[in-house]
Design goal:
CATH architecture of the largest domain: Alpha-Beta Complex
Helix content: 10-25%
CATH superfamily of the largest domain: Medium-chain alcohol dehydrogenases, catalytic domain
CATH topology of the largest domain: Quinone Oxidoreductase, Chain A, domain 1
Distance between the termini: 16 Å
Strand content: 25-35%
Length: about 300
């Protein structure tokens, strides 16, 4: 039995995308197979496509997020066929990613999908909310401390603002001026235009979702903490600042807690546009244009 999967076997722009027929994967020990209902397209997919993570000469799958229904389970799994779930894929060789008709994931990478959201909305959550909660964990700030979030209107940055508000952090959101009302509605205490110099203030921690690097670390107080989202691109430490970069991990327990927050209305799922799976090239082209508020989502 064959299925469609979005893959790349050469690196480049959107034109490198292929819709490939591959065997439907079979779940092994401790795994589940999900019939994909929807899968978000993230900047990291463009990074894989362009060769940033290597793998030349291999066939690489794309897609990290998935929402859908379990249709087969391996041995040693408590999940039942028919359960509606969302999950995070972190391997894109064998098995391939989530931009496909089916995907196999470890059972521990899966959580119940929010009952209040459809698959398209739920598919925007796993990678971005897990990135947000794990990055905040790396910053290790206490309630009342000051946090700067650059790129706050992006998918990860917006969720950081929401979660930081819940944790009692005094949060400054940095983004375009037109995003100020939205970010204040998410719980930001203060707003800073992205044209401003972030070092005009001093923060206990900086979550640099925009990848500013040096200007962002300049805004971090002596002995504070800085976390970026792209390993290898973080600036050098200075003034006793703890510097780190997130390598997001699949975590079904964390994802289940985030799913509950979405059902409580405390995490906003933002969908920019929907594309059918066979139009993955067009979706990648739209991602490259930029200016998105929310995620592009592919549906089989």
């Amino acid at each position: 039995m064959l299925m469609r999967a979005v893959t790349v076997s050469r690196f480049g722009g959107p034109e490198a995308i292929e819709i490939t027929e591959v065997p439907v994967p079979t779940p092994g020990l401790g795994q589940v197979r999900i019939k994909v209902g929807a899968a978000a397209l993230n900047p990291v997919d463009a990074a894989i496509r362009s060769g940033i993570f290597g793998g030349e000469g291999e066939r690489l799958g794309l897609g990290w997020d998935v929402a859908g229904m379990i249709d087969a389970v391996g041995a040693g799994v408590e999940w039942k066929v028919g359960a509606r779930v969302m999950g995070l894929a972190t391997g894109h060789r064998e098995p391939l990613g989530t931009h496909a008709d089916y995907v196999v994931l470890d059972a521990g990478a899966v959580a119940p999908a929010p009952a209040s959201l459809d698959d398209v909305q739920a598919a925007t959550l796993p990678l971005n909310t897990l990135s947000a909660v794990q990055a905040l964990g790396m910053l290790a700030l206490r309630p009342g401390q000051k946090l700067l979030v650059t790129g706050a209107a992006g998918a990860v940055g917006g969720h950081v603002v929401e979660l930081a508000h819940r944790e009692g952090l005094e949060t400054t959101a940095m983004a375009s001026l037109e995003d100020e009302p939205f970010l204040l509605s998410l719980g930001a205490d203060h707003f800073l235009s992205r044209e401003a110099d972030p070092a005009q203030a001093s923060f206990d921690g900086v979550l640099d979702a925009a990848g500013l690097g040096r200007p962002a670390i300049a805004a971090t107080r002596d002995g504070g903490s800085y976390v970026g989202l792209w390993p290898g691109r973080e600036p050098e430490s200075e003034r006793g600042i703890r510097v780190g970069a997130l390598n997001v991990q699949a975590n079904g327990v964390q994802l289940a807690a985030l799913s509950r927050l979405a059902d409580l209305g405390e995490l906003v799922a933002r969908v920019a546009q929907i594309f059918p799976l066979e139009d993955a090239v067009a979706a990648h082209a739209r991602l490259a244009e930029g200016g998105l508020r929310g995620r592009l989502v592919l549906i089989p």
